[in-house]
Amino acid sequence: MANLLMRRALINAIRVPAGARASSVNTDLAKVGKREWVCYGFNGQPNYVDRPDYPMPAVRFQPETPDIKMLREKEKGDWRKLTMEEKKALYRASFCQTFAEFQAPTGEWKGVTGWALTLASLSVWIYFAMKIFVYSPLPETFDDEHQKAQLKRMLDLKVNPVDGLASKWDYENNRWK
Amino acid sequence: MLKAASGTFAHVLKRSLIPTARVNAVGVVRNSHGGPVESDEEFDSRYEAFFNRKDIDGWEIRKGMNDLCGMDLVPDPRIIKAAMHACRRVNDYALAIRFIEACKDKCGPKVNEIYPYIIQEIKPTLVELGIETPEELGYDKPELALKNVYEM
Q1: Domain range holding A27?
Q2: Do B8 and A81 touch (CB under 8 A)?
Q3: How far is B45 from chain A (nearest CA, A)?
Q4: Does A146 fall in a domain?
Q5: Is residue A103 part of a domain?
Q6: Complex ipTM > 0.90
């Protein structure tokens, strides 16, 4: 008995009604409304995205209004008899944007670059502020006199005499080689 | 009991994961090396035959087109012509225009070399079926702007 109940519970837990494999499909279906679901699309969900790598989205872009239904009837006849407006209306009923439209430059890069450079330049001001308000002044050993004295001392100690500093100093004539 | 239940579980899982009826739209592709290699000619013929199927429906046409657009190739004019006829059979004008646009996009940086050739090859079919090229519809340049979704 318990075996049977267990099995039934498991089956009920796993089984999903046909056409509703995941709950996200239901929410998507609610959003799709009266739009016709015409294709697998890029992930099997009833959604619409203009993508060059999946040019045919899963649903038509516009819901089936009476106008469009009339156009669809007319579409069944000779296409040469359709006017340019009707053809464009048919296109816009199925698709949101043409390739030229969704691939058109948005100019967004300008704002992004502008903000990036603004923030980068802000760091320069932060650096100066740090110099003025936060850091103590450089040690006195950084001035010219001390640097020269240090160099003199290094030469006196013959630092790196083979191929370094001292090797470049002419000790007999007291000048650089 | 647990064993019996897990057996059932595996069975149900298998049934729900593996679709019983797969759409073998474009045949079986053997993806191992050393196997038979399909020539370009065979590939074109396979897709032409696919689009030429009499009982093809809109779902399968779109599937074929989306697949072609995911491949590293520009569809041969033969395939495009067959696809145009398929669109005619399912009465979907927009689909035909969209596919020509997609093929133009597939030309990439060589669009000025390949696209005129494609148009030249498929022009008789377009005239026969009454399909305009995207250029004739004015779709080579952006026509409408989209309203910002945050301002609706």
Answers
A1: 2-98
A2: no
A3: 22
A4: yes
A5: no
A6: no
